[in-house]
Specification:
Two copies of one chain form a homodimer. Chain A is of the alpha/beta class. The first copy, chain A, folds into two domains: 3-44 and 316-423, Aspartate Aminotransferase, domain 1, CATH 3.90.1150.10; 61-303, Type I PLP-dependent aspartate aminotransferase-like (Major domain) (Aspartate Aminotransferase, domain 2, 3-Layer(aba) Sandwich), CATH 3.40.640. Chain A has 14 helices and 13 strands. Chain A has helices at 8-27, 41-46, 50-53, 78-88, 102-115, 141-149, 166-175, 198-205, 237-244, 273-286, 292-302, 305-334, 360-369, 401-423; strands at 32-34, 95-97, 132-137, 153-160, 163-164, 179-184, 215-219, 250-255, 267-271, 341-342, 351-354, 372-374, 391-394. In chain A, the strands form three sheets. Chain A has an eight-stranded mixed beta sheet, sandwiched between helices. Chain A has a three-stranded antiparallel beta sheet with strand order 10-11-13, covered by helices on one side. Chain A starts with 7 loop residues before the first helix and ends with a helix. At the A-B interface, α5, α6, α10 and α11 of A face α5, α6, α10 and α11 of B.
């Protein structure tokens, strides 16, 4: 039944039935978690044998000709730079392989530009009191956190199925020199799961920002994380930027956090030589070298890019049923009510659900009451403020399938309950 | 023969003999390196079996009760915090275990204080244009590099066998609010190898800096790195600071870089809860969690603190002969000339040699000509400027013993040659 077409009496009856179901679900005393994009145990087990690859009998001289157990090789070992070059479709010599976290590398990059200009002659961002950052919404809370930490005013940019609103971006960056960058998850975007259209990527590459030190943070976190047989294809922004002469615009990031072990994977960045000069200078003061044993462990385990892609198929096999559970439950439970919209992604880690406007916080609170922890309502917006109180990020990867089914049932009950409450002014 | 007591003719004869020897050594076409404090291959092999400890058959639930293969536990796993607590003689809950590099953690700490005040109400250091940092000399070039990168004026503080000149430090910090900190390697100091006396530590703990946000960077890099049977004992600065009420003054760092694998070890910091609140806040934006698999690998390999100390004995057995080669050669070759002084440390990674004033650069250049790379002359001073052009850091750990013998012979030849040149005004 479409809620908006229901009479008050019909809605009251629906409300009573839902409340009954809610109480029943709550009485089970569940403790389920769909809050974060954490791989599930089954996925972690996929990479177990990687831990056997480097052992006391290993050969430790890599392609650089050095004993990788010792200090040195600031940019990461050659074989790892090559592999990340293949993942990001960029030359290996534009890649720096860092620690275990691409978030940390992004934080370092912003931190670097806060106190040292990325373009000679520009002011470090710390000295731009009204500094601003563009934040496509809904987006990744930890991205927004970094620019919040560094005191940026964050301007939300609406997303649709082609990516962020390019008209708005083009106009804003052309006019305002204090806009210094934009957060992007261009493929299987967090949380909507959409991939930027070719036109969007081309328009990014053709941006003419007033700020010479405007940078696109291109967080390609899910570039090889397909979950269907019709994966999205993202246009290569570096190639496009070559055509427009804007090679210094994008800075790319990715990691193996959701390929091998979250927090114990390997992260990388790729940037133009002008950008890399500034970042590498900082890194040369910051650290002697990152964990090359873990780099070698990863490269030797996958063997080559083909081996890596074979490994990704195993993740897909684990994740496909989880996304099916989410999408099928939404389809069955929420679609008839016509109060919610959601995405049907070909990859990534999330399903983004827009529940009835003004009810997202209530849905999250109800779910928590019934033992299901969701990402906080509003988390996908800068400062945690969703002006429509509508978006909820569903992270289906962590719970086992039977728990996910329970959690999604509860989610739908709560979404419908909150919608009834709202429509009935309860 | 004491050079300063020699006649010109005697010195000329010595010079000719040395030049002969230098040419002979040069003709061997050697390529030896005593530049950095890198462990040698034999030391790296000591930890090989650690690489077998974590494998596909391992149990991955740690004391925190979580699967450590997944995201989470920002401060590091409990068992690792405990072990670093024992190493630094501080409570485990004051410890944060970070990535693979204590240098990186120090960089992060300074970086943090550049843009966020460590004490509420103080200005972030970026906003203190005449910010200054105290640099005990000779000291660690990478420390000085961090404060150079962040635009500090660096004030050299002379070191003696008890540590840095405390009279000078007390006076400077009491007068100048723009002095924000001091770099310290309190035990087996880099490069002099001395350990701060109890009195020095007590005076550090009793400092009354004008700047409320003055911090002591206590880089306890060599705290368990003894090389003799009469190890130094460092007074616990945290305990002393408790007595003086200065608990927020010190921030401690250490790592396993020179215990297991440089660059693939584990690093940690320890600080008061006030300090840690500021750093942990930053880390909560910077990263989700560090490599917990590597933390577990280390803890399980050593078993406990006793196991760790047993492991350190193996390092000592490898390093003792290397230091003996250096010290014996200096004793035999340089002592008679009475032109140089050096330290005889009970631990750490270096021997600090003061050659005849005004000849250090020349000695390093001559060594390089003869195929021996040393740490650059002046590297142990801020901005690489040794006002006496006298200090050279000898790093004996990396070369195999037979190479070290050759390198030290060449070093002594070059030191004497440069001294003769200087005294003869050549």
């Amino acid at each position: 039944m479409e809620y908006l077409k229901c009479s008050a009496q019909e809605l009251e009856r629906e409300y009573d039935a839902l409340m009954c179901r809610f109480k029943e679900e709550k009485s089970k005393g569940l403790s389920l978690n769909m809050a974060r994009g954490k791989p599930g145990k089954e996925q972690l087990d996929l990479s177990l044998e990687m831990l056997d690859v480097i052992n006391s009998k290993s050969e430790f001289v890599g392609e650089d000709g050095l004993d990788i157990r010792n200090y040195g090789i600031l940019h990461g070992i050659d074989e790892s730079r090559k592999m990340f070059g293949e993942i990001l479709e960029v030359p290996a010599n534009s890649v720096m392989v860092g620690g275990c976290s691409s978030l940390n590398m992004m934080f370092d990059a912003i931190s670097c530009m806060m106190t040292k200009p990325i373009v000679e002659g520009c002011k470090p961002w710390y000295e731009v009191p009204d500094r601003k950052f563009l934040c496509p919404v809904p987006g990744y809370d930890r991205h927004f956190g970094i620019t919040e930490y560094y005191g940026f005013e964050m301007i939300p940019i609406p997303m649709d199925e082609n990516g962020p609103d390019m008209d708005m971006i083009e106009q804003l960056v052309a006019e305002d020199e204090s806009i210094k960058g934009i957060w992007c998850v261009p493929k299987y975007s967090n949380p909507t799961g959409i991939t930027y259209s070719d036109d969007t990527v081309r328009r990014f590459a053709a941006l003419k920002p007033k700020a010479k030190d405007f940078r696109i943070i291109w967080d390609n976190a899910y570039c090889i994380h397909d979950i269907t047989d019709t994966p999205d294809k993202l246009l290569n922004i570096v190639d496009e930027c070559k055509k427009t002469g804007n090679i210094d615009l994008p800075i790319q990031f990715c990691s193996t956090s959701k390929i091998t072990f979250p927090g114990a994977g390997v992260a990388a960045m790729s940037a133009s030589s002008n950008n890399m000069r500034v970042f590498a200078n900082r890194y040369s003061y910051q650290i002697i070298s990152y964990d090359k044993l873990n780099m070698l462990r990863h490269v030797r385990y996958f063997g080559n890019y083909k081996g890596l892609m074979e490994h990704m198929k195993k993740h897909k096999a684990v994740l496909r049923p989880k996304f099916d559970i989410v999408l099928n439950t939404l389809e069955q439970e929420l679609k008839p009510t016509a109060t919610a919209k959601w995405t049907n992604p070909n990859g990534g880690y999330f399903v983004s659900v827009d529940v009835l406007e003004g009810t997202a916080s209530r849905v999250v609170a109800l779910c928590r009451e019934a033992g299901v922890v969701l990402t906080g309502a509003g988390a996908t917006y800068p400062l945690g403020k969703d002006p429509h109180d509508s978006n909820i990020r569903i992270a289906p990867t962590f719970p086992p399938n039977h728990e996910l089914e329970l959690a999604m049932d509860i989610f739908c009950t709560c979404a419908k309950l909150a919608a009834c409450e709202k429509l009935l002014n309860k």
